[in-house]
Amino acid sequence: MFTSRGCPFQCSFCDRPHLGKNFRARSPENVVAELEACVKLGINNFLFYDDTFTVDKERVIAICREIGRRELKISWDIRTRVDTVNEKIIAALAQAGCRGIHYGVEAGTEKILMVLNKGITFEQIKKAFALTKKYRIPILAYFMIGNPGETREEIRETFRLMKKLKPDYVHLTIFTPFPGTKLYSRGLKEGIIKSNYWQEFAANPKAGFQPPHWPENFTLEELKELLVEGYKNFYFSPENIIKNISKIRTPQELINKARIGLKLFRMK
Q1: What is the pTM of this model?
Q2: For the chain, which terminus, N or C, has the lower number of CB atoms within 10 Å?
């Protein structure tokens, strides 16, 4: 579900500049009415795919309150930023059935966070993660590698932060310079991006087109190898393995986790 459009923040890598910086939101009553209609159809699990769900804190509280008033037994995830949550918000989310918060952390060094214009601090990251864990809401953390100016050691610093923060899940990707972003314009201006390939693709779409990486310090193959290293470094740590095993409640969960683990092990 989308309950809002637009994001007031200025990340230089964001792939959705076309949605604008003005935050436009549906009313809490409108949002929960749609949830209730879905529940009547037998749908009980939701992902709110807003760019930043918790921009308007009072609206979030009102949505949670309305879910409770209508006694909806649902499970839902949100995507947001570490600097837009507080204990009141997280407590309300937990009480209303929120079972997952997706935080964009992106990088493990201040240098790269500044390049990305993320506008967050490591103190804010730690605080948001601690509060979310306090209310037992699982965390999915987003990270990127191959960012402009990033070195191999800085990428491994991101891997170390992933393990230190201990989210329940990580989503690790290779940085892609998207059209309309500040970093794409910078790449063209500095000659790091050799041609305006997005414009060329739009004018003449061809099968097999793959979004390009930032070629300053790494080949795509090198980044793919680091991506696998990062995933294995996180998910195959003894602490993470023990934590996942301790959460298994049914034979089917054991089978599912074993399949995922085998798939990760085979990554190359």
Answers
A1: 0.90
A2: C
